[in-house]
Amino acid sequence: MKKVSVQCENIKLSYGATEVLKDISLEIKPGEFFALLGPSGSGKSSLLRLIAGFNQQQAGRLLVDGKDIGSKAPWERNIGMVFQSYALWPHLSVWDNVAFGLVERKTPKDLIQSKVTAALEQVGLLGFAHRKPNQLSGGQQQRVALARTIVIEPQVLLLDEPLSNLDKTLRVQMRQELLSMQRRLGLTTIFVTHDQEEAMTTADRMAVLDQGVLQQVGTPTELYDDPVNPFVASFVGSMNFVESRVKGVRAGGLELSAPSLGDFLVQTAIHRRVEDRVQVSFRPQAIQICEPNQVNPEESIIFSGTVLSSEFLGQFTRYHLKAGDVDLVVDHPHRIGLKPFAENASVSLALKLSEVKLF
Fold first, then answer.
1. What's the number of domains the chain is made of?
2. Is the pLDDT of residue 123 over 90?
3. Is 1 among the domain residues?
4. Which of 80, 91, 191, 246 is least crowded, fewest Cβ atoms below 10 Å from its Cβ?
5. Is 199 exposed, middle or buried (0-12, 13-18, 19+ CB in 10 A)?
6. For 75, left (φ over 0), alpha (ψ -120 to 50), or beta?
7. Is the pLDDT of residue 84 over 80?
8. Predicted pLDDT of residue 132
9. What string of DSSP letters covers 104-155?
10. Are residues 122 and 177 in the same domain?
11. How confident is the model at residue 83 (pLDDT cuts 50, 70, 90)?
């Protein structure tokens, strides 16, 4: 199967006076597993439906394998889509659900037989061919929806939050199976989700959208380590933000002052003037709860805080702290026998300067 690219060039979509997609430009590489990530109402599902042909842009071009398909009807695009609800025919067997698209295309019976058999084998459901959808679990129904889509051998596979109806354990299993199947088939796949963990564990690259605007495109690591703005920083993972003031400017860095953190020097290429305000940001795991003499003061900001509450999450305990007038989140690694800090306890904190990002 040929791997194809998908390109959106200055796509604009409105529903009446409401702008849903605002000048979207991005390129999805051949054979890539690409995630569209964003909160409800961000435009990610609208973009997916536009690629499928269920929406029509008012401006811009949509290209698949370098060819403009914007004027084609959905059934002319050779694009497969798995819906959030799976949309299986309840009165048809698993076999007939999977065969449906081939029957509509008037595919020869012997070819239908071989293609449906291969598709059901791909998703591990050949032994369930004669069951009805209501006799299957949620995960099995999702596999049927996948088989029904891949059996027509689409150029592009679209997935609209297909795991949202599954429990957490099954979601983890199914996203691994999805990725494994995508790698075997080499299908260019676009996956819509609001779940950052799903996107980060499956996608080769991903795009973050907010209010119809493309915020950033990159690998999960790039978006996590180097977000371009506070929205991406807080949506892809958790982030602490502290307002600070520029005290001085040095070659390659800024001297900053924040009431909760004190005075410190940050290496940055950002240009600011004395008395300018900047947002200091850092991930919860960038802060250590420790004794001051356990860290190098030239590499860390050392300050104190008060425990407001804690959540035990297995691998780490998430503390909500107050440092001066600022609320912070700190992830502290858990070890057997380690007792959590009590509420209202005073703790010493060390923030690694290399983990600090400025906005």
1. 2
2. no
3. no
4. 91
5. buried
6. alpha
7. no
8. 94
9. HTT--HHHHHHHHHHHHHHTT-GGGTTS-GGGS-HHHHHHHHHHHHHTT--S
10. yes
11. confident
Of 294, 270, 292, 285, the C-alpha closest to 328 is 285
Q: Which residue intervals of the chain are DSSP H helices?
A: 44-52, 94-104, 109-122, 138-150, 168-185, 196-202, 220-225, 230-235
Whole-number Cα distances in Å, 70 to 106, 155, 157, 311 = 26, 15, 17, 49
| 77 and 145 both lie in a single domain | yes
Whole-number percent of the chain with pLDDT over 90: 65
Neighbours of 265 (CB within 10 A): 16
CA atoms within 13 A on the CB side of 28: 32
Residue type, 94: V
CA distance 49 to 68: 16
Measured between alpha carbons, how far is 321 from 282 in angstroms, rounded to an integer? 14
Q: Answer whether residue 55 shows pLDDT above 80.
A: yes
Asked if residue 111 and residue 10 are part of one domain, the reply reads yes
256 and 334 co-located in one domain: yes
